[in-house]
Amino acid sequence: MAEGEGGSARPAASPFDEAMEALSSLITKRSRADKSNKGDRFDLLFDYLKILDLDQQIPQMKVIHVAGTKGKGSTCTFTESILRNCGFRTGLFTSPHLIDVRERFRLDGEDICEEKFLAYFWWCYDRLKEKASEDVPMPTYFRFLALLAFKIFAAEQVDVAILEVGLGGKFDATNVVEAPIVCGISSLGFDHMEILGDTLGKIAGEKAGIFKRGVPAFTVPQPDEAMQVLEEKASQLDVNLQVALPLDANLLNGLKLGLVGEHQFLNAGLAVALCCTWLQRTGHQDINCLQQMSNLPEQFIKGLTSASLQGRAQIVPDRLLNSESSGELLFYLDGAHSPESMEVCAKWFSLAVKEENQHQNWCNPQGGDSKSANALIGNNFGKSSAKISTQILLFNCMSVRDPKLLLPRLMNTCASYGVHFKKALFVPNISVYYKVGSNALPPSNSQVDLSWQLALQRVWENLIQGEKGSIEGEAKNIDIAGDEVRDDTEPCIKSCENSAVFSSLPLALKWLRDNAQQNRSERFQVLVTGSLHLVGDVLRIVKR
């Protein structure tokens, strides 16, 4: 036992916690748009590769490299699942993680085990620390994770390494790969504009930075401005850039994609194109992958229909309230955080709640469709009598994003499907961005700045006023209409007719559970969105 403040004993940190503390030391508190640090120099990555003896190993990897604004994580997930089902040993590097940093490193479809993670982590960390200098400082957080991924995949001798770009493309840490087998660009939109540029053309230029001379590349149908830039960059590098069309659902032989939502057919089509090209360019002609796409190999179908990804179009019943006597509380989780993805998320949520509500009297999911909302919750809630459904929004987003772009897309898309939120709850994330693991939880007595959540609430209330057709919507001061509590120890800091700000996520979840228990004639359907960090925090609590 170690000694804590005031002489009290506290448990000694576990080996994993010690690793997370070391990893947290690499997180800079500067804005990602701030370039005033030596550690941001892209050329440093090649110094790190030499220190870790990776400079000769990475060129031997058979890499699939994917960038994009929306759907790149889903595309990588489909791609990994397909090639794993074709019999290859796969390595998948994605970001961010939701609960455990090990989620970022998947071997054969599973998160890397703690024992291997710690061994590779300390091997890389200690060697970099030993060689660190003023000219070659320790790598920053994401760069270290990318280097760690390369070390893991090299040591584990994967057949294929699927790399999701963290941010942008040209200067992303994954872009040290100079000769991938094939590259992909998923859907492009407006995100991280403070870093990548304020037009689709500028953003496309950054994403196209992963193109390598003579290496084939695929993208999905893009807006004209973005497609023109992609084509120009491809032409300059003699890249054969092709457009992968959305997957035809008929090719799945009556089965459904493992990832839910119409937009996933776009990502699945891109994944199929990437896999076919990878197989051809690596000499695996034994797997029949026809370019005409008149049919799909059985391994492809299995990969596409069994793929899974936490925090994207995911439905999770609250384990504390899963019986008829306790009320019903369902969380619909999606880490959408751009205007375009917010619209897709809203469509998915609206259709999912309608499907569930149509089946609310029954508990006999048909056809083994484990991906439908009814199948996911039928066993838990099927015996309940008809209930009123109530939709609640649980929201937070980073302050670099514009809620005046995000929230209207969400509200208007839901409204177009007849779905209206009874209440919107705004909360800070539990985890702090400059810590990882259990260290990411702030002290229970820490003061939380809720100015951003209050700003989100003002945007929402003004939108509600506009939706109700109030002429005085913008002029009306919601600060007067809301009941404000200045004491941060109170559960709800500020409650208005249509929204509330809570000082913490656990307090908001307690409010939801209390309401579900007190109103057993209602089914509470909570959309959690705006931030993958928020989604991860909710999953951590609800699955505990």
TrEMBL record:
One GO MF term attached to the UniProt entry: tetrahydrofolylpolyglutamate synthase activity
InterPro entries assigned to the protein according to its UniProt record, in alphabetical order: Folylpolyglutamate_synth (IPR001645), Folylpolyglutamate_synth_CS (IPR018109), Folylpolyglutamate_synth_euk (IPR023600), Mur-like_cat_sf (IPR036565), Mur_ligase_C_dom_sf (IPR036615)
Residue positions binding ATP: R312, D334
Enzyme class, UniProt record, top EC level: ligase
Annotated positions binding Mg(2+): S95, E164, H192
A biological-process GO annotation: tetrahydrofolylpolyglutamate biosynthetic process
An annotated GO cellular component: mitochondrion
Assigned keywords, A-Z: ATP-binding, Ligase, Magnesium, Metal-binding, Nucleotide-binding, One-carbon metabolism
EC code: 6.3.2.17
Family membership noted in the UniProt record: Belongs to the folylpolyglutamate synthase family.
Role noted for this protein: Catalyzes conversion of folates to polyglutamate derivatives allowing concentration of folate compounds in the cell and the intracellular retention of these cofactors, which are important substrates for most of the folate-dependent enzymes that are involved in one-carbon transfer reactions involved in purine, pyrimidine and amino acid synthesis.
The protein's name in its UniProt record: Folylpolyglutamate synthase
Organism of this sequence: Eucalyptus grandis
